[in-house]
Structure of 6,7-dimethyl-8-ribityllumazine synthase:
Amino acid sequence: MSFSVPPKPRIMSGGRNKIAIVASQFNEEYVEGLVESCLAELGELIPNARVDLIRVPGAFEIPLACKLVLENEECEAIVCLGVIIEGATAHADLVAESVTDSLLNLSVAYGKPVIHEVLLVKTHEQAKERCLEDNDLNRGRDAARAAAGMIEVCKELTRNAK
């Protein structure tokens, strides 16, 4: 487990960025903590951003919602938030692996940042640490920082390509 926190990107001004957050309803208490911390950090980093929140039933449904957003919306980044808690079977691992592979493939195929914070944790305590507490493990804040950073990287690379 890494305790290294990504640095806070510089605050973006000018322009109107659109960001979509696709969040699972399963394990709602934890996911809501991710959403709240992500929105708060995005509000600081990209104050003029329009953020659309899309709720889906579970983590497995996140990639399809992302694909539809990428096909039908103009957005600079998608942030994916969910919590999968391991149980007695391999189901959690299968879902997490499928979601991870799908999100990576969507990001590469569409050339847009798809930020993956669909957490696979072993215990409710781990979920609480990463979703509900204001600490260096808070993954909602990390997701916002990754989105802001990647929006800036993509703009810079696109600008340099012209």
Q: What stands out?
A: The chain has one domain: 18-161.
